[in-house]
Amino acid sequence: MSTSAAKLHAQNLQAAYGDVQVLWDVSLTVNRGEMVCIVGSNGAGKSTFLRCASGLLGITGGQLLVDGEDMAGALPDAFLRRKIAHVPEGRRLFRAMSVRDNLLMGAYLRHDKAQIRQDLEHVYEIFPILAERRDQYGGTLSGGEQQMCAIGRGIMSRPELLMIDELSLGLAPRAVELLIIALQTIRKSGTAILLIEQDVMTALELTERAYVLDRGRVVKAGVSAVMADDPAIRDAYMGQL
Amino acid sequence: MKHWLWLAAFVAACALVPLFGNNYALRLATIMCLYAGLALSWNFIGGMAGYPSFATAAFFGLGAYVSAVLQAKGVPFVAAWAAAGFAATIFAALIGMAILHLKGHYFAIASLAVVEVLREVVNTAEGLTGGGMGINIPLQGMSADVQARLFFFVMLTMTVVLLAATIIVSTSKLGFGLRCISQNEDAADILGINTTFYKVAAFSLSAFGVAIIGAIYASWVQYIEPPDVFDILYSVKPLVMVLLGGLGTIFGPVIGAVLYLALEELVWRNFLTVHAAVLGALIVALVLFLPNGVGAMFRQWRKRPAVQS
Lengths: 241, 309
Known about the structure:
The complex is a heterodimer.
Chain A: E1 6-17, E2 20-31, E3 35-39, H1 46-53, E4 61-66, E5 69-70, H2 76-81, E6 84-87, H3 99-105, H4 113-126, H5 128-132, H6 143-155, E7 161-165, H7 173-188, E8 192-196, H8 200-206, E9 209-214, E10 217-223, H9 224-228, H10 231-238
Parallel strand pairs in A: 3-8, 3-9, 6-7, 7-8
Antiparallel strand pairs in A: 1-2, 1-4, 4-5, 9-10
Helix pairs in contact in A: 3-6, 6-7
Chain B: H1 2-15, H2 17-20, H3 23-48, H4 56-72, H5 77-99, H6 104-124, H7 126-129, E1 135-136, H8 144-170, H9 173-183, H10 185-190, H11 195-221, E2 223-224, H12 226-229, H13 233-245, H14 252-266, H15 275-289, H16 293-308
Antiparallel strand pairs in B: 1-2
């Protein structure tokens, strides 16, 4: 079956907030170990898709498969147990909790204590600044450090797919560089990554495949490198270069 | 461990009251335990989970009435109190599932409405509750003196149980989850914490404590009517006490209850006609100057030398 390699597969997925439908017939696949991005303008439904793919929002139609299994009606903990982690937009750290505790919260559903400690050290290796700040409150970190902490928290669940909503939004270029290096490290360990990024150029450079979402529909899908050269994409999302 | 020692000290201090105090002191100590119990109960949902519930008066009245009606039908008082607790727990779980998805002010308003609805229901169900006439709960075969002591110890026991529950919850996975919810519910959701279940659990636990205290109160005063036990002040007072003592802390609610009672006794007596205004001013002053309660003030004061060095 062609879906056996797919970690996440959405088929004609529909989603709505109340009566307002946001996603229409979205079909999207992330294979194991693959790095994929979703680009599109504000309100295109990118974050909504991630909310569906982590169980925060129920789907109203179509299918959502994780490892080939239907996830209809599943709650966030079910998605986490199937190794999908969500790094939400705006980082959403626990402000009055230490960096270390924030990271450990990522392992909330796990019980393998020795392994968790090892994974914590692994996060500190990827983000050395977090090791320095381990006893500081999450709310006292800079934007870039908060994003590192949020990604680190995501890794602490040992995901096979890490979904990151707005990696670089509001961050300094230097911080973004560090984050990108970290993502490549995470990627090398075999974790698939689904990235939402408003900096389209960076997103297409970083990933293998890309989906363009517009007003809740997938209007284009393909190899990132090819898309980066597509005049229509350049016109619509990169401005005049 | 330290918490349990403080708990023991609290019990010892309270247990001395009937030995040395007069009847006035005994009555005051009983009210203090009642307040502390309400504040501790509210702390589960309002302090730990960060959901500003105004439903405390609803659970208080519900507990009082369930117990009173059962006793009127011949159920012994201890069984009636327990039944009141369980009835309120189930009621809170059902209501909680309906309103705990609301946040902030919306949740506060919805929980406030629960009080009004219950009061009206009790008012209209005259056959069962006596309606506006109220209901008598006579306790026979005991002198007034013995009763006063009995209710003090019962109230104290309830406070101790709730304090023990607070210590256990705050060090358990439930307490941890609740603190996560109060800091960032979205993140808690994403990390696989079953937020709905935890919130409903906190709300029900809160209702359980409040309802039993309401039931004991009804037996203590021996006569209840809807405006008395569904008084909105039973919702507001515990909230002020917890803010006073420290939101989401273990002993904060007890400290807040003691301080509040002291204020009520010493200050309000002298401002009888404007005591509601004093309550309002107190809340405003608290939020402005002591958002983390007097406990935090002391902690900061103790920490200060260490920070300077």
